[in-house]
Amino acid sequence: MYRSHNCGELNASHINTEVTLAGWVQKSRDKGFMNWVDLRDRYGITQLIFDEGRSQKEVFEAAKTLGREFVIQIKGTVIEREAKNKNIPTGEIEILVSELNILNASLTPPFTIEDETDGGEDIRMKYRYLDIRRNPVKNSLLFRHKVAMEVRKYLSDLDFCEVETPYLIKSTPEGARDFVVPSRMNEGQFYALPQSPQTFKQLLMVGGMDKYFQIVKCFRDEDLRADRQPEFTQIDCEMAFVEQEDILNVFEGLTRHLLKEIKGIEVEKFPRMTYEHAMKTYGNDKPDIRFGMEFGELNEVAKSKEFPVFNAAELVVGIAAPGVGNYTRKEIDALIDWVKRPQVGASGMVYVKCNEDGTYKSSVDKFYDQNDLRHWAKTTGAQPGDMIFVLSGPADKTRGQLSALRMELASRLGLRKPTEFAPLWVVDFPLLEFDEESGRYHAMHHPFTSPKPEDMHLLETNPGKVRANAYDMVLNGNEIGGGSIRIHDKATQQLMFKYLGFTEEEAKAQFGFLMDAFQFGAPPHGGLAFGLDRLVAILGGQETIRDFIAFPKNNSGRDVMIDAPSTIDESQLKELHIKID
Amino acid sequence: MYRSHNCGELNASHINTEVTLAGWVQKSRDKGFMNWVDLRDRYGITQLIFDEGRSQKEVFEAAKTLGREFVIQIKGTVIEREAKNKNIPTGEIEILVSELNILNASLTPPFTIEDETDGGEDIRMKYRYLDIRRNPVKNSLLFRHKVAMEVRKYLSDLDFCEVETPYLIKSTPEGARDFVVPSRMNEGQFYALPQSPQTFKQLLMVGGMDKYFQIVKCFRDEDLRADRQPEFTQIDCEMAFVEQEDILNVFEGLTRHLLKEIKGIEVEKFPRMTYEHAMKTYGNDKPDIRFGMEFGELNEVAKSKEFPVFNAAELVVGIAAPGVGNYTRKEIDALIDWVKRPQVGASGMVYVKCNEDGTYKSSVDKFYDQNDLRHWAKTTGAQPGDMIFVLSGPADKTRGQLSALRMELASRLGLRKPTEFAPLWVVDFPLLEFDEESGRYHAMHHPFTSPKPEDMHLLETNPGKVRANAYDMVLNGNEIGGGSIRIHDKATQQLMFKYLGFTEEEAKAQFGFLMDAFQFGAPPHGGLAFGLDRLVAILGGQETIRDFIAFPKNNSGRDVMIDAPSTIDESQLKELHIKID
After folding, report:
1. Do B243 and A178 touch (CB under 8 A)?
2. CATH superfamily of B291-415
3. Can you tell me which residues bind ATP (chains A, B) (predicted)?
4. Residue of B521, B549, B564 lying closest to A70 (CB–CB)
């Protein structure tokens, strides 16, 4: 044993105890005749004291050689500290050191091991093992563990069984973004890494497992946006003999449990909102409802006048930004520039100041009178002192742009409070979405999602209108989970593949095993998956997932610490029956 | 909700309750005017009754159409059963059915869904989703979940933090058996799937994580022996500031906890045995100590006489098989044939019958007198009524052969009881082992294992004699876990790579990140990994791991259910910058 206690547990009750500690030198303060060292481990920091008068000469001298991040072991006596530090649990004591053993020296670290470090992202990633010593990263990993354990306990207590599904599976044409693995034993053939265990969990339902979950790595070889990783973790769940309502209840229960256990927050029953409503009201299928700023559609009044921009538009829609009625012309112009950025893509913006005296001043006063503007204010819910921002154009695009503006304003106004949690369900997603590029419909969720029976008749005539038994859980403007009731009979599944443009042969070659399984007594079933990385980041009040992942990859999919991916030997390629092209 | 109760929970206390159940038709017995159906789900079986007199006509008729494995939902009343079945929890009641809803029909399954099935291995694997409905497989998966949860709870309670390490890592030349993954974004480069998270867990120790664990998939592309899988699961653990003793104590504690919680068995403190002792006494570094039959080395007496076979041998060694002194000549010959099989490889075997009257009768009476044989009996611990079997030849090979014979005899004699658990630690493994093929030493455990300081001086002169701080946990003749205290300083790690035949450049290219990390304050650390698949199989009293894995692969590494691996599109290969060779 290298220690009798850790660096976070000693306090006044231990005074006069002989202890052995081990850890890292956080910092030392050499006052000549006295030398203090902060000793750090995962559990905390304990102050050590080396005193010319009270310490042995060689121990006292050795302490002067300690550099930052040296690993040491000490023996000593717990004594009362003169200058107490009420901010840390060990702040009332210090250790008068009698023995010092340097376990390992350290080069000067390339960045400071402090909560606020001087290391940039790149250098932190290269030396991730040092970055992990910092509280923000270390605590994020501990937090992730705690969340995962709570998930497991909660689901296990509800009779869910965690089943490990395979990582070496089959590539599908759907799987344009599959990572593949050449097989040595099966020449010219490849495994794929799962983008999700979807078909396996459905087969477990066919197999009578009844309630399945798994916290599992998934893989997607896609161009990485800022906060995506090629490997990510899902809480993957499936239940048999359930309807949508049952699934929503179980996983709402899980989420409420997490909020309560992890954050100490009790939330009301989750609101439910249809996809259609979410799109009309927030321009977004994952609305952040921590704040209002709901959309007001202004077509009626806006198009009744001679303003050509609005008259040419499919949709005129606005939001009221609270308390910014006094924005200067410069501030407004900056915001107009912001919505014109290519990432947002609006061509212009109309604004209406709602004066405190109940009058209005707009950028379109030439076309609209006070009555018109009063109507806009009513529709957008604007109060005196607010500002209404109005966008116009093609309906879908304009909603998307206004949603971006809504989120931007909320951020600027501090309405997206990381300590506030506003979950909801978005339900009744469309089954299919039209892909302009390929000119055909794709499954919005995946091809195993069941259409609502009452919409089945629209599949031939108006496929875009068919709603699915699909749902997303949304938390603070992020989709943290999504799922559906699945198709569980062969005929419907075959039909679905047909509508998605599969030939009968393709469907059979790729998913024959699943359709075969459906012929042997498949129960009705459904489920969902949470993105664990995102979930813990949001629960942790963070915007980015990266510090909740021990060894993340960069935007090129590289691990810069170990320098992967890398080239491999010619002989290895040969064994795998492949060549570099 | 498709059900008010599951099929395992109704009993006499529910009589007269209206219930809704859903599940699979296990079997039906049609007696003309009466029809019984056993309805099955994960939780049990409930008997349904359709009665011409008491059921509605259409329900009664519909029940006659039900085939095996149909999925149905029923409503009905719990009534007392006439012929009670005390063997199942629901055996006192049955459900008088008032409504029947066929949720899904089923083709006749290709094998019976019974504990003892008529399906062979191949067909069971092809229809694994049906196989999972069978109790032995279903219960194995539930059992695995229970073990994994207990492991997680136990380690979490000891402050271990589960950290997910990456799956897309770097291939190493050591990794001849790496599965690799071509990178789309990094042309001509490959990730590798981890054979274990070894270096990452060490980096977590450098990062101050202090106590790490992870239940994690690992991958090895090796020719599959009967009971190996290309993807397998480890309970991977590491601790900082510990010595070997600390690690043995923690994981002995975990194993005792599992035996107690899962099996209700209390075991004594685990015996510890050196590798050297295990090899000399059992011919095996994972001895099954549920039974004795320890080796007796007979060189002294055996070589004192004129028996040329023994005189030419490096080692003469025997075991006493209890109670088989009355084996017939035919039975003995069969055993001699058995040790001559190529898998064992002995060239012959000497035997000594220990008669009840204290005399001996051996196959080498020509050379050895009763005194000699009495000495053999004493050395091998043979009692009257036992039989001594003696092998001879090169020491290592002969020990291996005798070990195989010992295990075979124990199996035949019923000494390997699946309900008995005899764990132990084997310690002081050699650091290196000589590989005849390459003509050089390899790391027996892995290159990160630390040599015992007191043996360091032998590294140059007698590398095979250097012992490592390495240990295995052995349970019932299986290695279920193994680990070591690691090297934690750059100089020793460099030296180790040198002894293992790495050039300085190779070591740096492959493991530079680890040696770099050691320069920034690496704490002393060590750990181990358990094989979860094997552990649960042994705890479950089974010889094979396959039924503890939901979707195992066959001996060619194929998933015959989904038919993977498979060919992939030319366009996909092109995107990955590879060609089939």
Report:
1. no
2. GAD-like domain (3.30.1360.30)
3. 220-222, 229, 479, 531-534
4. B521
